[in-house]
Design goal:
With 335 residues, the chain is of the alpha+beta class. It contains 13 helices and 12 strands. Strands 4-5-8-6-7 form a 5-stranded antiparallel beta sheet. A hairpin with a 6-residue loop joins strand 11 and strand 12. It starts with a strand and ends in a 6-residue tail after the last helix. It binds flavin-adenine dinucleotide and iron/sulfur cluster. The site of flavin-adenine dinucleotide (FAD) has 28 residues, from strand 2, helix 7, helix 8 and strand 8. Pfam families: CO_deh_flav_C, FAD_binding_5. Keywords: FAD, Flavoprotein. This is FAD-binding molybdopterin dehydrogenase.
């Protein structure tokens, strides 16, 4: 491992000050460390300054549910949020996405902010002995396009990068129209969660809309008619801890079997947490029949671009979405 400076701020205010002079390529925030330390050991990330924010769990580790909605501190542990009774009852898609992510040990260590900002699992990105990776070395090419790309994305890709966004929680947050509060040298700002992750385009190394030195402080999920009837379905290669090959976060507001409103986000198949707006539009106002769900799933994947090893993700993604919608529709109504 390379040498680095180590700083441990005690509060968000101190952390913002510490990050004020941050350089994107030379500073890194450490929270649970379950992604960052891995990538430093692999020599993929080489920060010269490590800003350890673990002390912020006391200030920003909260889970607060009220009539307006849910506020989740970015430094709350994944395990704690997954088990929180209010989250389980009223925002089940969030609890399920966290409970199905990683292993119990990792969930006890890792925090929400780190989860949504984890880097891709593309093997070429994680192995610097591969020269071509535009995400790791801008302008170097993309080894995955002609290489092993079974786990790669079919939606939102570009000729510069086809890496899959790997996390689970982000799909739940995007489906529930969450916002994210970020703190930086110019104060705090709130942005829609959907605007946090950037499509790869020609700059796959720029993965988020965060400004240099900005820290995610909180996630805000509005209370809406669809939040309690929500569900996360994850398909993976093995039942034990594993990343999604395909997943769907859905939230439904039903009047009998008619869809008053629906929210759909897809994981494991796209370069960013993927909101399927056109599929939602197709379902709204109609009966939630098997045919309607299948038609919506086809619409969700209409723009999919498969690569040599991952065409199966289109049929799998469609089936995952149909099953998630069907299971959400069968949830017991609220008294
Ligand atoms: C074997 C294994 C299996 C896994 N399986 C899954 C899975 O199935 N699903 C899934 O979702 N995840 C999975 N993960 C990933 C795991 O959930 C993440 O590593 C973890 O959530 C990251 O959280 P952390 O607190 O450890 O972040 P860290 O590793 O400390 O940080 C991750 C990144 O986020 C940045 N960061 C962290 N917090 C903030 C903040 N508040 N503001 C700004 N930047 C911040 C850091 O600088 C760093 O770049 C797996 C990991 C492993 C090792
Ligand atoms: S898919 Fe993206 S992360 Fe993977 S090798 Fe290509 S550029 Fe790198």
């Amino acid at each position: 491992m390379r040498p680095f400076a180590y700083i441990r701020p005690a509060s968000l205010a101190e952390a913002v000050l510490a990050m004020a002079e941050a350089e994107p390529s030379s500073d890194a925030i450490l929270v649970g460390g379950t992604t960052l330390i891995d990538l430093m050991k692999l020599d993929v990330m080489q920060p010269s300054r490590l800003v350890d924010l673990r002390a912020l769990e006391a200030e920003l580790g909260h889970v607060r549910a009220g009539p307006e909605g849910l506020r989740l501190g970015a430094f709350a542990r994944m395990a704690d949020v997954a088990a929180d009774p209010a989250v389980v009852a009223d925002y089940p898609v969030i609890a399920q996405s966290l409970a199905l992510a990683a292993s119990a040990q990792l969930r006890n260590m890792a925090k929400l902010g780190g989860n949504v900002l984890q880097r891709t699992r593309c093997a070429y990105f994680r192995d610097p002995s591969w020269a071509a990776c535009n995400k790791r070395v801008p302008g170097s090419g993309c080894a995955a396009r002609e290489g092993a790309n079974r786990t790669h994305a079919v939606l939102g890709t570009s000729e510069h990068c086809i890496a899959t966004y790997p996390g689970d929680l982000a799909q739940a947050l995007i489906a529930l129209d969450a916002d994210v509060v970020v703190a930086g040298r110019h104060g705090a700002r709130t942005v829609p969660f959907a605007a946090l992750h950037r499509l790869p385009g020609s700059t796959p190394d720029r993965e988020t809309s965060l400004e240099p030195g900005e820290i995610i402080a909180e996630f805000v999920v509005p209370a809406r008619s669809w939040t309690w009837r929500s569900l996360y379905l994850k398909v993976r290669d093995r039942q034990s801890y594993e990343f999604a090959v395909a997943s769907a976060a859905v939230a439904l507001d039903l009047d009998g079997d008619t869809v008053r409103d629906v929210r759909i986000a897809l994981g494991g198949v796209a370069t960013v947490p993927w909101r399927a707006h056109e599929a939602e539009t197709a379902l709204k106002g109609g009966a939630l029949s098997q045919g309607a769900m299948q038609a919506a799933a086809r619409i969700a994947f209409a723009d999919a671009r498969p690569h040599s090893h991952n065409a199966f993700k289109i049929a799998l993604g469609e089936a995952t979405l149909v099953r998630a919608l069907r299971e959400a529709a069968m949830m017991e109504p609220r008294p």
